[in-house]
Amino acid sequence: MERIRTIFFDVGNTLLFPNLEYILAPLAQRGVIVDENQWRSVERQTKQEFDRTGNDGRIDHGFWHLFYTRLLKELGIQDAALHDNLVQIVRQSANWCIPRPRTREILEQLGSKYDLAVISNADGKIADVLARCGIADCFRTITDSGLVGYEKPHPAIFKAALESMKAEAGQSLYVGDVGSVDYVGATKSGMQAILLDVCGAYKQTDYLRVESLVELQARL
After folding, report:
1. How many helices (H) and strands (E) does the chain have?
2. What is the pLDDT averaged over residues 129-134?
3. Which of 13, 18, 43, 183 is close enough to 177 for a disulfide, judged by CB 3.0 to 4.6 Å?
4. CATH number, domain at 214?
């Protein structure tokens, strides 16, 4: 394994987490409450199924389509319009705005040792979200699929990010949260990879994984 010089981060479920109050508002308006434990359980199951079954080429949309199909089934709700509305809301990057404690502190510490950057499947606005959350300045470059035109795991988005940093793939680490998208996409592009697996979807796999930025920092 080569020495790591550059660390690229995913954003959703890695640096920033969803504001469930906003994202689940259509359900709350019906008196249906989904707590964080149920959200994490559905996330865990969805990641495992998504990795097994693949997607239709629209990675982000495909994941959330599967997620809400599973969640609404658990809730006993059959409503195609509600399903589509929930998918639309969760895919708005502005609704991913909850950093975990010490996020900026750890990024600053890592930034003293490594060059930091972002690669995100997003809607072209992830840089603005990172700025509003107070961490955009921790990164030298921010590569957004909505601007690049390719979503992870397509090699083109990893290539664009590496070129933006003038980084060597073998000396770069990618930190994301979905095995088939982040880990596989990065390693196929010649990068090292590790999953930030908060929900525990990958405990029984061979993927390198951590459950927090604190653990990532300690591992490095």
Report:
1. 11, 8
2. 97
3. 13
4. 3.40.50.1000
Alpha carbon distance 184, 152 (integer Å):
9
Rounded-to-integer distance, Cα 171 and Cα 2, Å: 6
What are the start-end ranges of the H helices in 54-194? 59-75, 80-90, 103-111, 126-132, 145-148, 155-165, 184-188
Label residue 94 left, alpha or beta by phi (over 0 means left) and psi (-120 to 50 means alpha).
Answer: alpha
Q: Tell me if residue 215 falls in helix, strand or coil.
A: helix
CB 188 within 8 A of CB 162: no
DSSP string, 6-36: EEEE--BTTTEEE-HHHHTHHHHTTT----H
What mean pLDDT is predicted for residues 6-20?
97
Cβ-based neighbours of 163, under 8 Å, separated by 6 or more: none
**Does residue 183 form part of some domain?**
yes
Q: Clarify whether residues 108 and 122 are in a common domain.
A: yes
**Which residue is it, tokens 């080569």?**
2
Q: Which domain holds residue 38?
A: 18-94
The answer to whether 195 touches 44, Cβ cutoff 8 Å, is no
pLDDT digits 0-9 by tens, 161-205: 999 999 999 999 999 999 999 999 999 999 999 999 999 999 999
| pLDDT for 1 beyond 80 | no
* CA–CA separation, 159 and 173 (whole Å): 13
